[in-house]
Amino acid sequence: MIIFNALQTSLSGGIGRYSYELAKALYLQNEISIKIVIREQDRNNFNYVHNNDDLIVLKGITNSIQRNFYEQFKLPKYIYKKYPNAIIHYPDSMAPINSKNKIIITIHDLAFLSRSQDFTKKTVIWKKVITNISVKKANKIICITNFAKSEIKKYYPDVVNKTAVVYNGFNDFSHDTIQDNMVSNKIRQYLSMPYILTVSTISPRKNIDGLIKAFDRIKDKIPHKLIIAGNNGWKYEEVYKLIKKNNLKGRVFFTGKVNDEELKTLYKNSELFVYPSFYEGFGLPPLEAMSYGVPCIASQTSSIPEVLQEAAIYINPYSIEDLADKLLMSTKKDINIIELKDKGYARTKCFSWEKCARETFEVYRTIL
Fold first, then answer.
1. 102 burial type by CB count under 10 A (0-12 exposed, 13-18 middle, 19+ buried)
2. Which tops the pLDDT comparison, 62 or 364?
3. Can you give the pTM of this predicted structure?
4. Apex CA 206: angle with CA 200 and CA 207, to 5°?
5. What is the DSSP secondary structure assignment for residue 235, as one 8-state letter?
């Protein structure tokens, strides 16, 4: 039996999306008996579970501190008492320290080690401690890309023999009908003008400041606006200051948090998608843009070239000049747009949650 910990389910976050989609695909394929651990308030998201006994529903978890406490102390005891032979899959790098069951964890990235400057000192210390314990505790470690596996080899070479690479899935919602009543007037106002889109949390690792600086260099040569869709993250204030400093009000727009219908609308109507991140363990937004036939510019760093391969125009994210040149070239259509769109469509077909689930089952079988 597999116990899948989906307490971190949040459809707006990367790991939360991974937890939800993989849990669903695993359950529906039904190759091995599986139970899913969820929060009470997430119950409606798991209506595909036809047998209530296949859900372990926990009450009183409303924040990450409470979730971490349950995952580390209460959940391991409960599972070992009721299901002593079960394997527990924790879809993040935090394994329960005192668990007596076999454990599988998923490593999405090790950015806190490779780019520690993008995190608070407190976060880096905590992540170092818990990840060091977790990779040793885990019986198997799933890495979402070969790049993520190379990071394990770099920082935790003694456990690399426990790793297995299983690519994330991908939700192609480009054929879905958009529910217009769910799209705010704020988003609608962008649709009357040509725009460049990026979808990202505003934080140092995402290089949004670099994108704005590159856009500033070419703004007088193109009619496009720049739309930045995503939540405010650490040090977002520094990015906002750039707008005032470079007099970009009316050319650069921040949407804040968007719902799925608004995100679909933004992808569908954009002329160009840009993903200038310094570091990613996988990176889903470029694939989402490609599914809409939107040409993509992306960083030639970390896992991004592994995921996108020949379907993107690559830039050096540390070079404002290179990013500005590629933005101008792409908006002026000095590239083969049709060929790039075709490659993008083809690349999106390489990823699915069904495939991810099948390969995850193979990992489970190695320690059953």
1. middle
2. 364
3. 0.90
4. 120
5. T
